[in-house]
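Chain A, query sequence.
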Amino acid sequence: MNGAGSGTLWAAVGRIFSVVSERAAGVHKSLTRRRSARRLRLSETLSLGEKRFLAVVQFQQQEFLVGGTGNSIALLARLDAPGATPDNSAGNQENGL
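Chain A, predicted structure.
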């Protein structure tokens, strides 16, 4: 290529890069806004092996302890506050408490 054609090519590449950068920034802002509006959040997980896990799930201002296996999931307890221990009312009923 000659010098004049090369300059035009680089100018076109620069414009394309500028447009792509602007679009990427717009997409990033859009994704950031969507993330902040989510009400459901996975706070913590613990793998128990063999496709089993425990998880703390946050919905709005409440937390729940859930357990899961390869083919099921169950609510184990509602946690009253972040860091609180699970409500053991089933165990208390069995012990007559």
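The two ends are 88 Å apart (CA to CA). Residues 3 and 45 are 59 Å apart (CA to CA).
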